[in-house]
Amino acid sequence: MDNAATTKITENVLKAMLPYLRENYGNASAIYSLGQKSRAAIENSRIKIAENLKVKPSEIYFTSSGSESDNWVIKETLNPREKNHIISSKIEHPAILNSLKSVERFGNETSLISVDEEGFVNLDELSEKIKDNTKLISIMFANNEIGTIEPISEISKIAREKNILFHTDAVQAMGNVKFNLKDIDVDMLSISGHKLGAPKGIGILYIKEGVEISPFINGGEQERGMRASTENIASIVGIAKAIEDAYANMDENINYTSDLRDYTIEKLLNIDGIIFNGPIDNRLPGNINITLKDTKPQTMVQYLDMYDICVSSGSACAAGSINPSHVLRAIGRSEEDSLSTLRLSINHNNTKEECDYVVEKISEGMKKFKNR
Ligand SMILES: Cc1ncc(COP(=O)(O)O)c(C=O)c1O
């Protein structure tokens, strides 16, 4: 029940990867045939991903993670000789928010636009915040905590009119929202493998042809000199397979998961003391975010864990910290309520029986731990 934190590698992905972990272990820069098999695997993967996203293979860059892709965009699109202005939102992932803090140290300025009570960014505020030196707009495609799917096409139009670069963090959207980059016009887009059945430690940054961005890791000529380091071939093959499968089964998976989500939400809302967070429409198919009135979410997470149920208190990346969720604060929840949230993120591998079991255990836990 915590697929937004990470997913299990699928059998298809594992099968595609294994030859590159065993016999085909060559360095893709080597000119002998073992190396060239690796080179071919990388370039075929790039072609496969580009076909699904409807972009050119040369616009796909492999990175180590969603966080790396986000850091690359924020840190390397700015002009070091100018004071740049960047617009983002209050509900971004820490990979964006902390990168913004990092570039602020060098004299750049950032504006974080607010969201409404369902987590949708305020488009009027976005337009109003644009200045002559606004270089980049970075707004996430879908929120990892409350599942809000942002109006990416509208944001893109605003950016286009003003000739400003537009990046979107699509780490949670990939595989969960049907899109391609012919229909929506973005300059850069971040993806992470482990959210969609590929391994941890592999990501993608789509960079539209013509966008000026500096290399992120200096070194050899890998990724056309933009991101050095010997390629992680097995994981590149893995993420390509995961994306291929996600696109092949997209409608079926989205329909199944969102029906299961709505069924589970309805049952959860019958429990006394549960408040629902996030939007009703335009929500990630697997996202359920609830506030447990007068119950510590950590206690509930531990209780559910005794029954082998994995859920997240707030977002996984913020777990371990006891700060209230910045996303829930941004949608107007009180500090106390923002500390008491639980995120369930189901996917097409979950069943109705599992959801019934989870609802039953949450209901039990609410009675046991109220005010404790
Ligand atoms: C919206 C969003 N962006 C970025 C990331 C970071 O991705 P990665 O774990 O691949 O670094 C996450 C991970 O939770 C996320 O949900």
From TrEMBL:
Belongs to the class-V pyridoxal-phosphate-dependent aminotransferase family. NifS/IscS subfamily. GO terms for molecular function: cysteine desulfurase activity; iron-sulfur cluster binding; metal ion binding. PANTHER family: CYSTEINE DESULFURASE, CYSTEINE DESULFURYLASE FAMILY MEMBER. Its EC number is 2.8.1.7. This is cysteine desulfurase. It is an enzyme of class 2 (transferase). It catalyses: (sulfur carrier)-H + L-cysteine = (sulfur carrier)-SH + L-alanine. Residues 2-357 form the Aminotransferase class V domain. The keyword Protease does not apply. Keywords: Iron, Iron-sulfur, Metal-binding, Pyridoxal phosphate, Transferase. Its cofactor is pyridoxal 5'-phosphate. It holds the Pfam family Aminotran_5. Gene3D superfamilies: 1.10.260.50, Aspartate Aminotransferase, domain 1, Type I PLP-dependent aspartate aminotransferase-like (Major domain).
